[in-house]
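Query structure, 242 tokens:
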């Protein structure tokens, strides 16, 4: 790993336990459109009682996002990391790239991060790199399409909604290619895995081995949050012990 990235890791709350206590991070909701439908996801706006991933009170324009970074940074000098994770998928929104450009030009000392499902990452990895992004998170919940097809309602392929095994196979192919492209560029890749009891929980060790063999830096396991109005609303969330 490049030495400059090693120094950044020490101030990145997503990668370093001490940094989590000392430095701040900020997510910019500029990407409302998504290119897949996960069976655990229901994106809602303006819900004061919700703080789960995927929920925001408003979607910002790139300029609004940059101005908000400026305000927060002026109040919180410990700010180190700016992330774009939605509320849809960043790679499905052109506003993502414009936001990165504006923020990076104005605050080059801040670390820019992207969190994506990986479907549109192939071909965009170089674009992210050229804009200064060095940290990419990919949410991958299966490396077996037989499991993946139980997790995703549809995946966009060639401009159309693909379903079932075909959709899961296509998503896995794109995620794998995107991971490998980012690693080849020298980017640090974290894999997020949503642990879904009875669906992919026993599969996670295989998935970790799969992404490790392709250069992933670390893996973060997230518990399923059963959300009303989704296909998985009736499932139980895994316990902390699990």
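Result returned for the query:
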């Amino acid at each position: 790993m490049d030495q400059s990235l090693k120094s950044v890791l020490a101030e990145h709350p997503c990668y370093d336990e001490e940094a989590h206590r000392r430095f701040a991070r900020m997510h910019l909701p500029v990407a409302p459109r998504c290119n897949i439908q996960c069976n655990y996801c229901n994106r809602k706006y303006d819900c004061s009682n919700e703080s789960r991933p995927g929920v925001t009170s408003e979607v910002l324009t790139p300029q609004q996002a940059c101005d908000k970074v400026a305000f927060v940074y002026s109040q919180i000098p410990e700010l180190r990391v700016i992330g774009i994770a939605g509320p849809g998928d960043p790679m499905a929104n052109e506003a993502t790239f414009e936001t990165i450009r504006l923020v990076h030009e104005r605050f080059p000392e801040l670390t820019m991060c992207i969190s994506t499902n990986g479907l549109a990452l192939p071909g965009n990895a170089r674009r992210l790199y050229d804009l200064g992004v060095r940290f990419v998170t990919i949410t991958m919940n299966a490396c077996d399409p037989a499991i993946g097809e139980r997790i995703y309602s549809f995946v966009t392929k060639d401009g159309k909604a693909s379903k079932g095994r075909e959709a899961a196979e296509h998503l896995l192919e794109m995620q794998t290619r995107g991971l490998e492209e980012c690693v080849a560029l020298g980017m640090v890749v974290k894999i997020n895995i949503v642990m879904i009891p009875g669906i992919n929980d026993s599969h996670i060790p295989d998935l970790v081995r799969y992404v490790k063999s392709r250069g992933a830096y670390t893996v973060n396991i997230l518990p399923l949050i059963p959300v009303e109005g989704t296909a998985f609303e009736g499932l139980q969330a895994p316990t902390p012990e699990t």
